[in-house]
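Retro notes, structure queue

What went well: the backlog is down to a handful. What didn't: a couple of records were mislabeled last round, so from now on we paste the full input next to the output in the thread. Example, using 2-amino-3-carboxymuconate-6-semialdehyde decarboxylase from Neobacillus ginsengisoli:
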Amino acid sequence: MEMRVDFHTHIIPEDFPDFATKYQNDKWPVLQPTCSCGANIMVAGKVFREVTDQVWSPSMRISDMEKESVDLQVLSPIPVTFSYWAPIEEAAVLARFQNDFIAETVSQHPTKFIGLGTVPMQNVEVAIRELDRCVHELGLKGIEIGTNINGKNLDDESLTDFFVMCEKWNVPIFVHPWETLGRERLSSHNLMYTVGMPSETALAAASLILGGVIEKYPGLKICFAHGGGSLPYILPRLDHGWNVWPHLRQTEKPPSFYAKKFFYDSLVNSPVNIKFLVGKFGAEQVIMGSDYPFLLRETPPGKIIDDTLTLTEAQKRAMLGENALRFLNLPVNQLI
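Corresponding output:
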């Protein structure tokens, strides 16, 4: 029996705390209601994103899931709430608040939702402590992190202990773009979403590869949003650079070897790109994800996989649900 698992969905509590007022800092995201069925996420007094009640209402989500034949959603925070820039004491409070909310939502609807947590990555010791709580107390099945930590790439030595513990505890990591590089050039045409995010994701993946993180910690389970961004398409260039600059190498093998160890969500907007992803990494490394409930999401979730005629039924079944459960360390038949 086919199970459809939407791995890439975002959620925010309707009673999201107003830290901008509490801490007198308008860098904090604020959820400002516009009506009973919607709100604006405000940052520094400007609209960062318009959202509907789909983003906080479990009943709305479940209704949409039934309409779109989705069996399970994997819930993760909205990246703007990571707040890695904030004082650690304040960021830790927000992380706990969001993790408690996601865990409670899952506990109320255990056959509909799986939860991923968030941790304050600006302080690895505190991040590990909250990671421990997420996984071992709240029962969340993984963690979502951003593509950089205040401008530090993910291979920065200050982050080593975090990845050590993720490997030790077998915690799946969902890497989502945020605070994209080149933001000063991306203000028009919503280029941050269409160009900045894919580029930012590729930089994060390349850093983990070239910095030797994946080689040192081969047990890490990492999935990249949006099909890995531009990474799959620049891998030959990364390999070429690895070959011509041997003095820069920190890995035994070229980048394309390690890229096959990552997972990638299927949000690539075209069957041609799905075919390319599968050819590059294998169907077993691709996980269906829609970016629900935002405007750039895929509707209905999994449509591009369904429309990729070169896939076998077994490959489609794996990509639409089985791979997500396997990535999250859940039995494929657990919830069928």
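Agreed that this is the format going forward. Reviewer comment attached to the example: The chain has a mean pLDDT of 96.
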